[in-house]
Design goal:
Pfam families: AMP-binding (PF00501). The radius of gyration is 25 Å and the shape is globular. It has 18 helices and 24 strands. It is of the alpha/beta class. The strands form three sheets. Strands 1, 2, 10, 11, 12, 13, 14, 15, 16, 17, 18, 19, 20 and 21 form a 14-stranded mixed sheet that branches. Strand 10, helix 9 and strand 11 form a beta-alpha-beta unit.
């Protein structure tokens, strides 16, 4: 949690210390650049230096305090990636105001539930967010302060209280975004280790969205991993495609280059815009999810002369496992020796492990034969344990819970970046957290996997996605089917794009069934072709212990997946669909 030469009192932390230090040491260096596309399609860029970002965030922090939004209050922040987004977020952190960050892609119903649970004191958003707040009653019982970012005073008076611009004008002493970026003092709040710094809601792609309580100590731990394990250095430039990660840029002394894209729907991004931003600023780092790796890889290699990214020296992928094929295609744009670093983690604890693409390529045979997906070794300071599969809560950690290597169970993690609780979700906290000593908790990931002899972690799918069914064809009839091992075996068929294991009820028993999405252009137009295809799948399944007994298949035209990653399959929806289909072929 401490970087050499800049030790801090770990019990009193605020990640904004990194920004203030950068503003003092390199005030004229670029901190943020936001790409904009005009109505005529021309790209332009808005920029802030470290000095300007520090000055802006100081000014906004003071203005928020003068407006009655003070330390300990909670504020919804619904602002699109922009210069104001960065300045506002750092201002909230500096003031000790707790930002509530949500993924707009989670849907109106989930958003209302999130705000009802978080009970925000203030709502800071763009005009569109305020209109939605009024229409759907977001935060209505608790919100007492409104702030509009963008828009005019007339709109703000009707829907959003006051504008950020008007709020800053009230203080004639403060001149934000000054070209002189002169220092404006603000007494940054120092929070205790267990004091709430932010509430980050999970996306809801694997269950109901839950508010994860973040502390500045957690942020410090994440910054430490990015510096020490990933090797990110001061002065780098990052193509920031995910708003939360983009905030780490200025904290690391790295410029965040924000492309013109909808961060909640990366699959819709225009590859040319991203390539242009990388070239414009000679980005050295990229943080991209699997959907973007797939999209950029296809765009960059579809021409006679492949696109190249010579300035990139590191690619970080997280959110879901990227496919080997998409990584291989994307890597053709990179210089020799530059790897895609795949990370494993969750909102509650990130990052936990890391594996480079070179090493990942060597694990394909194991994966294709039902061994799960390798997600690498634990990063520094993280302890990974595997425990027996149970849906019951576990209150206190005991080393006897730890399973031997190569045995599948639930993944449990401990480390300085692991969250301690969900906000106002006591039941969820009890289900997910295990007390380990006076001030430490372990987090149950809800994922299944195992550790191999060398300490590498292998993912075998969500605990909730396992299918408990009688397996008379193997030694134990109580061995469950695990989603990733089963699906990866069947995915080796040349006509298969992806598969999803679900359980359906038939004659009072749970039966495993495989939903199949075919490759684009593959068509099984008649019963003969379909039966031949299913027979081939049965033959594949019979060769592996993990899939023996899976003999029911249904073809689905287009799997329902999460918006952000375009990779997390909504198996619950597929299970309902499969059950309605009746007897499978």
């Amino acid at each position: 949690m401490m970087d050499k030469g800049h030790e801090i009192d770990a019990s009193k932390a605020n990640i904004c210390r990194h920004l203030t230090r950068a503003a003092k040491e390199t005030p004229a260096s670029l901190a943020v650049a936001v790409q904009k596309r005009s109505l005529f399609g021309k790209l332009r860029y808005e920029e802030l230096t470290f000095g300007q970002l520090n000055t802006d965030s100081n000014a906004i922090a003071q203005a928020l305090n003068d407006h009655g939004i003070k330390r300990g209050m909670k504020a919804v922040l619904m602002v699109t990636p922009s210069l104001d987004f960065f300045a506002l977020t750092f201002a909230l952190f500096k003031a000790g105001i707790v930002p509530i960050l949500v993924d707009p892609g989670m849907g109106v119903k989930n958003l209302k539930q999130c705000f009802d649970e978080a009970k925000p004191d203030a709502f800071i958003g763009i005009p569109k967010a305020h209109i939605a707040r009024c229409l759907f009653g977001w935060g209505k019982p608790s919100v007492r302060r409104l702030l509009t970012v963008g828009g005019n005073d007339v709109f703000a008076n009707i829907f959003g209280g006051t504008t950020l611009k008007a709020l800053l004008k009230r203080n004639t002493v403060i001149k934000p975004r000054s070209k002189m970026h002169q220092a404006i003092d603000y007494d940054i709040a120092k929070l205790k280790n267990d004091e709430m710094a932010a509430i980050l809601f999970t996306s809801g792609s694997t269950g109901t969205p839950k508010g994860v309580v973040y502390t500045h100590a957690m942020f410090e731990a994440q910054i430490s991993v990015l510096k020490n394990d990933y090797g990110i250095a001061h002065g780098e430039r990052d193509l920031a495609t995910f708003p939360l990660f983009s905030l780490f840029g200025p904290a690391l002394g790295m410029a965040s280059i924000v492309p013109d894209m909808d961060a909640s729907k990366p699959i819709t991004a225009n590859p040319d815009s991203l390539f242009a931003a990388i070239e414009q600023y000679q980005c050295t780092n990229m943080f991209v999810n699997p959907a973007l790796i797939e999209r950029l890889g296809k765009a960059g290699t579809q021409h006679h002369k492949p696109h190249t990214l010579p300035s990139i020296k590191r690619v970080i992928s997280a959110g879901a496992p990227a496919t080997i094929s998409s990584i291989s295609r994307f890597s053709k744009m990179l210089k020799d020796g530059v790897e895609v670093l795949n990370s494993y983690g969750a909102t509650e604890s990130l990052p936990l492990t890391m594996i480079g693409s070179d090493q990942l390529m060597k694990t394909t045979d194991v994966t294709d034969n039902g061994g799960g997906i390798c997600v690498g070794q634990a990063v520094d300071g993280v302890d990974i344990a595997i425990i027996a599969i149970t849906d019951d809560p576990i209150t206190t950690w005991d080393e006897t819970l730890r399973l031997p290597v190569n045995q599948i169970g639930e993944i449990v993690v401990k480390g300085p970046m692991v969250s301690r609780a969900y906000y106002h979700r006591d039941h969820a906290t009890v289900q997910a957290k295990i007390t380990d000593g006076a001030n430490t908790v372990r987090h149950r990931m809800g994922d299944l996997g195992y550790l191999d002899d060398s300490g590498q972690l292998w993912m075998c799918g969500r605990k909730a996605h396992r299918v408990e069914a009688n397996r008379v064809a193997v030694a134990s009839d109580k061995l469950p089917y695990f989603s990733i091992p089963c699906e990866r075996i069947f995915n080796t068929h040349s006509s298969v794009k992806r598969t999803a294991l679900v359980g359906i009820e038939r004659h009072g028993e749970t039966v495993p069934l495989l939903c199949v999405e075919l490759n684009k252009g593959t068509s099984l137009t008649d019963d003969t072709a379909r039966n031949t295809f299913f027979a081939e799948l049965k033959t594949i399944g019979a060769k592996h212990q993990q899939t023996v007994g899976i003999v029911d298949f249904l073809i689905h035209s287009n799997f329902p997946v999460d918006i952000r990653h375009n990779a997390k399959i909504f198996r619950e929806k597929l299970a309902v669909w499969a059950q309605k289909e009746g007897k499978a072929s």
